């Protein structure tokens, strides 16, 4: 009677030599990345130390900086709030602008193209001045002809004017981002949705946008980071954000270097935090599409 061959013993992951080699390579890669990070950190520390030493040679008043840093710090919430609201409105404008650019309707194409051309062709600061100072002038003319109800629509507060200016400006630039995201969805998906009897809005909401948002989100993060810094321009209207607070103290006590350094450091920290959050969001969204 033939003997039944016994099954070969299976190795546990810890006994598998390939598994052990893989773990060793992973540990080595992590160690290399850690050493590189430490080296870069040391270079940063040296540069900060050299910069601090140079500032101290210029009679830099560090005590004044630490005494009044909290006054500038209170403007962070205003900066973040204005940027968040503006990026939300800008995203809506960019979506409609992208749909207009992709539309076959000449009116939609003309309106979106004209909006993008005008906004991208003029400086943001001019747009802020026009909205904050120019629109009230139109409101006065409406009052003179007996339309005070419409005149009130053209008289905006500082925050409203700042949000409107940032939203219009970034909406024009983000239109191309949304257009590229919408065009990244394969044409076959449109045909399949049309074959199921979906309307254009159903197709956009259920098929196109969920796939396009993965392409759009990283660029929106980059635009939000840039907007946090560009929001300093709304200080010309007297909004009490970071730049306005720093400039107010700098003019009062002639401590421009100290206060501007505080403002620059706060914008830098906001950029670092926003970049970290953006990278985490990108990794999370990438995991959703991994197989």
In short:
This protein has helices spanning 17-57, 62-73, 76-102, 106-120, 124-144, 148-151, 158-183, 187-195, 200-230, 242-253, 256-287.
Please describe the topology of this protein.
Blueprint: H1 17-57, H2 62-73, H3 76-102, H4 106-120, H5 124-144, H6 148-151, H7 158-183, H8 187-195, H9 200-230, H10 242-253, H11 256-287
Helix pairs in contact: 2-10, 2-11, 3-4, 3-7, 3-9, 4-7, 5-7, 7-9, 8-9, 9-11, 10-11
Provide an overview of this structure:
The chain has 291 residues and is mainly α. The protein has a single domain, classed as MetI-like fold (Orthogonal Bundle). Helix content is 79%, strand content 0%. It is built from eleven helices and no strands. The chain has helices spanning 17-57, 62-73, 76-102, 106-120, 124-144, 148-151, 158-183, 187-195, 200-230, 242-253, 256-287. Helix 3 packs antiparallel against helix 9 (200-230) and helix 8 (187-195) packs across helix 9. The radius of gyration is 28 Å and the shape is flat. It starts with 16 loop residues before the first helix and ends with a helix. The model has no long low-confidence stretch (mean pLDDT 85).
